Amino acid sequence: MLSPGRRWPKGGSRVTNEELLSLDIDGLATLIRLREVSPVEVTETVLGRIAELDPVLNVFIAVTAESALAAARRLEAELRSGKYRGPLHGVPIALKDIFTVKGEVITAGSKILAQWRADEDATVVKRLKEAGAVLVGRTNLHEFAMGATTENPHYGPTRNPWDPRRIPGGSSGGSAAAVAAGMGYGALGTDTGGSIRLPAALCGIVGLKPTYGRVSRKGLLPLSWSLDHVGPMTRTVKDAAYLLEVLAGADDGDPSCSRRPVEPYGALVEPMGDRPLKGVRLGVVREYFFEDLDDEIRRAVDRALAVSEDLGAEIVEVTVPWIDEAAVAQRAISQVEGFAVHERWFRSQPELYGEDVRIRLEIGEKIPGYQYVQAQRIRRMFQKAFLKVFDRCDAVVAPTNARPPFGIGEVGPEETVNNIFRLGRTPLFNLLGFPVLSVPCGKTSEGLPVGLQWVGRPFGEASLLGFADAYEQATPWHREFAPRAVTPECLYDSLGDR
């Protein structure tokens, strides 16, 4: 256990560091609001946790301890004066190192940007600060977010907290590992083909890809303009709701951002009785999403469907046309737009890219324009076809990960384009742009997490969060994968270093 942190000078209960690290945002916010723990105490505890575990897990590219403590002291002073900003007041949050933070170097996991400093905060960073979040550092990622493993050739691989010999998923692997290991109560990620949901599933946490346009992307270094999404990664569904409420909303700096009003997502996620899913129809698309699954993952997902039925849901088998064509279209759009973003750098400094990203960019360069146009046409047809599914159901459920995480170094760089399709069942939902939430739904015989995706109608986040929260509350997985189970001793033993 870490040494005791700073406490409020008067009143309040004694809360151990282990108890602090085991809280979710909802529980921590209550203690901070009641002044039973202080923002400085919480921040010091999280920074201590980072110092303890990051030498093994390699989660952070940069830890911003000085600015985090300064922010925590300001937020503590606000509490003393009676000002409370809301559930994120004084809560330590991590950022994927792909969002601009004024005055800080933003690497995007590359060497190309190693000396570039941002001149303004990304919109989502600005909103987190305004909500009172304490930003503790910038997390590791697959280089330029172009991969599913977070094996970064420049900053080293991030390791999975549940087996440090394995990948955490990607590209937001550092953000997922940070939340899973207690190095932050939440984190921001980006999702172009599953880069929030896949690492969330592999690390046993919650990951939300909101509707395209629900959250601003201003200040995000893009991978694919028409596929990129920004969203929260948290320990529970309700925590994801709190973060979404802060992050969502119109932004004149992002022309793709919706002006649709933001709902009070956190307040909408509440218990709904003994059979909270009664009357809810959950669609299951067997084609593609349930094909070629690891046997243990299939059994975990089948058990999750049975639990949902016990909670009152009706499971409805549905079919969708254009799935095979949509998978090809998603690849083409991602690869062409990715090359378009990097064309100038790639032509002038190709040697600064890792081998796997170079391979990916070379593929994108060779795709002809007519194929990109055809891919976008297929996208529109697939969106229309999938929307019709919601005539028969209220949400769709599907596996998040198709197999357990690879071992670090197990898959060569030539597989970079295929990894997301081999590991997960996530990319087609980026093509759709619909909201998708991944929650833990089981574990393998080796103790590795399994994720379940909940897919909703466009801008249907409120209902989706409610459905997933009802499932989460009826299952043990958000407690099974609690940060207190990640210890230095377990990590070193897994690596054979002790």
TrEMBL record:
UniProt keyword Ligase, yes or no: yes
Keyword terms, alphabetized: Ligase
Superkingdom, taxonomy of origin: Bacteria
EC numbers on record: 6.3.5.7
Enzyme class: ligase
Protein name according to UniProt: Glutamyl-tRNA(Gln) amidotransferase subunit A
Gene: gatA
